[in-house]
Amino acid sequence: MTPSTELRVLVVDDEAPARRKLLRLLREEPGVEILGEADGADGAVTAIKSLRPDLVFLDVQMPGMDGFGVLGAVSEEWTPQIVFVTAHDQFALRAFEVHALDYLLKPFSEQRFREVLQRARNQQTSQSGGADARLVALVEELRQQQSYAERLFVSGTDRAFFVSVRTITWIESDHNYVILHCGVKSHTVRAALGSILKMLDPRQFVRVNRKAVVRFDAIVELLPWFHGEYKLKMEDGSELRWSRRYAPQNLQALHLG
């Protein structure tokens, strides 16, 4: 990164309110030059390559190419400091922490924003250019991982549409169908539970009994039950049984809580 008296910043987020909040906070900070904003991955890649910002606030979850894809697309040419912005991606948070990278978890406070920005200022004085080794390591890790579905296709009698896996609380087997429970909504798909499970990231979903798969971060409470089983309370109010056959021996390994 080229040393400068000002921190040159780009904001990338597909949600206009999130961009406005970041831009407002940045305008209140001395020594910051706002280069611009992008509302999607394509605009972000173009802006990073042409403007070469010192720092990018980069949304993780965006339609099409996500924040990781943006990083992979620019890393061979120019890698600025990155502050990832995410709403609820637990895997992403663990990845950022492993590689000692900064992130903002929505909704974030002004104090948290200032802490992250100050660390970026400190880093600016200690880096002389080129790609941050931690970001390179993160990109390489992501490239090596298997690709899992981000959306599931639902076909009804009068329409067809996609359901984001991030909205799924749990999945229920019903003979030759599965029911996707998404908060107050549910969608029925003709498929076997096992085939759906293979499409989902095992860091985000787990089978808890013969008829149910749950999303990890939709578990509100996990209580010991009889004979090595557990009772799960889900964020939609459902109560499920985690049978001994599917329950892991070491729950700490699941990063639940």
Detail the topology: elements first, then pairings.
Layout (H helix, E strand, L loop, with lengths): L6 E6 L3 H12 L4 E7 L2 H11 L3 E5 L7 H8 L6 E6 L3 H9 L4 E3 L4 H17 L6 H12 L6 E5 L4 E5 L5 E5 L2 E6 L2 E6 L2 H7 L5 E5 L2 E4 L3 E6 L5 E5 L4 E4 L15
Parallel strand pairs: 1-2, 1-3, 3-4, 4-5
Antiparallel strand pairs: 6-7, 8-9, 8-12, 9-10, 11-12, 13-14, 14-15
Keywords:
257 residues, Rossmann fold, OB fold (Dihydrolipoamide Acetyltransferase, E2P), 5-stranded parallel beta sheet, 5-stranded antiparallel beta sheet
Tell me what the structure shows.
The protein is an alpha/beta fold and 257 residues long. It has two domains: 7-143, Rossmann fold, CATH 3.40.50.2300; 151-254, Beta Barrel (OB fold (Dihydrolipoamide Acetyltransferase, E2P)), CATH 2.40.50.1020. The protein has seven helices and 15 strands. Strands 2-1-3-4-5 form a five-stranded parallel β-sheet, with helices on both faces. It has a five-stranded antiparallel β-sheet with strand order 10-9-8-12-11, with no helix packed on it. Helix 2 (41-51) packs parallel to helix 3. The mean pLDDT is 83.
Ranges where pLDDT stays below 50 over 5 or more residues in a row are none
Total number of helices: 7
The total domain count is 2
Radius of gyration: 21 Å
Sheet with most strands: strand arrangement: 2-1-3-4-5
Q: Into which percent range does the helicity of residues fall?
A: 25-40%
Major β-sheet annotation: 5 strands, parallel
CATH homologous superfamily grouping of the largest domain: Response regulator
In the CATH scheme, the class of the largest domain would be Alpha Beta
Q: How confident overall, as mean pLDDT?
A: 83
- The gross shape turns out to be elongated
CATH architecture of the largest domain: 3-Layer(aba) Sandwich
Instruction: List the quaternary state of the chains.
Output: single chain
